[in-house]
User: Fold Methylthioribose-1-phosphate isomerase from Dendroctonus ponderosae.
Amino acid sequence: MSLKSIIYDQVTNNLEILDQLLLPGITKYVKVKGVEDGWKVINKMQVRGAPAIAIVGCLSLAVEMRNDKFESKKQLRQEVEGKLNYLVSSRPTAVNMKGAAEELIDLANQLSKDKSVSLEDMIHKFLLKIQHLLEKDITDNQSIGDNGAKEILSRVSGDSQVRVVTHCNTGSLATAGYGTALGVIRSLHAMKRLEHVYCTETRPYNQGARLTAFELIHDKIPSTLICDSMVSALMKSRNISAVVVGADRVAANGDTANKIGTYQIAVVAKYHAVPFYVAAPFTSIDAKVSTGEHIVIEERPDREMTHVGEHRIAAKGIPCWNPAFDVTPASLIAGIITERGVFKPEQIKAVLASVSA
Ligand SMILES: CSC[C@@H](O)[C@@H](O)C(=O)COP(=O)(O)O
Assistant:
């Protein structure tokens, strides 16, 4: 059984998230009673990871809607739109919350115009859609995992095992379950084709050391932790088969925003001829953003760099630059692994066109 980052019970209208600021030392769930709480737990990174952000944001709206009284479909539509736009503002780089908000606002517009739909039906249909987003994330991740495992194995001979590097946390803690890049690693492990996974610490927030390592140990996956600065040395000495990371937003040309440090791993992978893969749900591809240059990169407080927990590690008075993400150019990416298949970055535009046709 993998870790559960989100607990949601429709019947009791209860939403709780595993507080990722306290992991791995303390396992504590925090109640999310509505949109305001949802915004806070996302912004403070008590829950993080692009898919988990979207799911918790949407579920926080569902919890609030069940407690609210609406006088008309028009009022419901307006409230839903305002609250979803507010949730999008909690963290700017990951596209998933924005994509989910746009989908839900479209649905609210359609339902409010449709005279055959009552207020009660509208609420019901809206809540069903949110529930569907949660369930779809898990099934999509399982497909991403299997597609990615097949792709990586297609590059090795016979039934040999592979050694993989990953960065940040893309597992059960970052999604509704299973994970994206970590889902690929889970699938390789389930197929008994994973020899070893190396996870980076992922400074400054240490998602790798605190969260990915926690998941790997929990699931008994053969793994080793390395510092971010050790990737070149690892690739030179350990015959790495592939790198697989997640994504916060993929531009239409395949440029990919992901956790800070991803770009340098891609550069190093190119130098060592190690294929570099991005694993993400298809909804992480933002057709409206033509290249990575247009992706807004969130900058986080200095404190995340200067302190580990309550303990200061940097000299007092030093100013910091703390971008939470960087953009890996499409030219460094061997493939984008999605639930719909594995695409070369240069295929993305055509795939987007065929989906919207
Ligand atoms: C499946 S999670 C994909 C990405 O969101 C992940 O790689 C990442 O960059 C997470 O960043 P975070 O700042 O921890 O939210």
